[in-house]
Amino acid sequence: MSAPAQCRSCKAPIVWAQTEAGKRIPVDEAPVADGNLALIGTGPGGTTLAAIYDPAKHAGKTRFVSHFSTCPHAGAWRRR
Q1: What's the rounded Cα separation, in Å, for the pair 61 and 40?
Q2: With contact defined as beta carbons under 8 Å apart, do 14 and 6 qualify?
Q3: Pure H helices in 1-80
Q4: Structural domain boundaries of the chain?
C-alpha cells in the first residue's frame, strides 16, 4: 500500500490509489467490513491499485471505501 496521506479538508488518514480506469482516488486508510473497494496490488512507481470489490476475484482481500463517500467536505471537491 502506498504511503498514508491526509485529506486536505477533514484531515482524515487516506491512501491514494489508482483505479482500473487510471483515475486517482482517495481511499479511507482503515478497512471496513462492507467496503466496495479492494486494494489489489502495486502498479508502476509504487502506485496502489484499487478495484471494485468482487467476491469471486477478491475473496480474502481486505475491503475499503472511497474517501469521497465518507468525507464531510466531499461536495467541495466534486468537479462540475
Answers
A1: 8
A2: yes
A3: 55-58
A4: 5-77
Q: How does pLDDT run across 8-43, given as a tens digit for each residue?
A: 999 999 999 999 899 999 999 999 999 999 999 998
pTM: 0.85
Q: Among candidates 28, 31, 35, 25, which has minimal Cα distance to 14?
A: 28
Distance CA 77, CA 71 (A): 10
Name every residue whose Cβ is closer than 8 Å to that of residue 50 and which is 6 or more positions away in sequence. Answer: 17, 18, 19, 20, 25, 27, 37, 38, 39, 40, 64
Question: How far is Cα 60 from Cα 76, in angstroms, rounded to an integer?
Answer: 35
The grid coordinates listed for 43 are 502498479
